[in-house]
Amino acid sequence: MKETRDNLYQLMVCPKCGKPYRGAPAISRDNTRLICPDCGTREALEGLGLSQEEQEHILGNIHRYQEEQE
Ligand SMILES: [Zn+2]
Asked: What is the 20 CA–ligand 1 centroid distance (Å)?
């Protein structure tokens, strides 16, 4: 699979977690980087003072919810 077509949702690699993702990126809290939606959520939760564990728990719930929507 060498040929990839450029489209609106081309695969991007998140500079924060290094994972590829599709879709609209989030902007990091310091406004300098485009990061994946998961990291965007993580940073937002971190800003609320939630622990790493709580962040992962909430992300897990978000992913479950997204899967149910598909
Ligand atoms: Zn990321």
From this structure: 8
Is residue 36 in a domain?
yes
Tokens of 6: 């450029």
- Is 4 among the domain residues? no
Total domains in the chain come to 1
Q: What's the domain range around 27?
A: 12-69
pTM of the model: 0.74
Q: Tell me, in angstroms, the distance from the centre of ligand 1 to residue 34's CA.
A: 9
Q: What confidence tens digit (pLDDT) does each residue in 17-62 have?
A: 999 998 889 999 889 999 999 999 999 999 999 999 999 999 999 9
Supply the DSSP string of 3-28, one letter for each residue.
-----TT--EE-TTT--EE-S--EE-
